[in-house]
UniProtKB/TrEMBL annotation:
Gene name, Swiss-Prot/TrEMBL: rpsF
Function summary: Binds together with bS18 to 16S ribosomal RNA.
Species in which this protein is naturally found: Bifidobacterium jacchi
Keywords noted in UniProt: Ribonucleoprotein, Ribosomal protein, RNA-binding, rRNA-binding
The organism's taxonomic lineage, starting at the top: Bacteria, Bacillati, Actinomycetota, Actinomycetes, Bifidobacteriales
Family note: Belongs to the bacterial ribosomal protein bS6 family.
Protein name: Small ribosomal subunit protein bS6
Length: 98
């Protein structure tokens, strides 16, 4: 199965400090590298106001990461991110040119 380019954006709990956010991000990116994928340095935007309240939160820590992985690895990454209570929202976009 061939690898594709993706962009992951997730919003984490605003209570996480910078180190906790970095550890959370690295923990999930291990799923990408474990399967032979790669990723660029995560772009941690930090704490921002949400457009609307999500799960009682009005702010969140934003993280954006570009990575290359198989569709299966990307689907698994999305699945485990959605299971974590510290992650408020996720969005994975495939960036390959059609």
């Amino acid at each position: 199965m061939s690898a594709h380019k993706y962009e992951l954006m997730f919003i984490a709990d605003p209570e996480l400090d910078e180190r906790g956010l970095k550890n959370l991000t690295e923990q999930y990116l291990e799923l990408v590298t474990k399967d032979g994928g790669s990723y660029e340095e995560p772009d941690i935007w930090g704490r921002r106001k949400l457009a609307y309240e999500i799960a009682g939160k009005t702010e969140g820590n934003y993280v954006v990461v570009n990575y290359t992985a198989t569709p299966d690895a990307s689907a698994e990454l999305d699945r485990v991110l959605n299971l974590n209570e510290s992650v408020i929202r996720t969005k994975i976009l495939r960036k390959d040119a059609k």
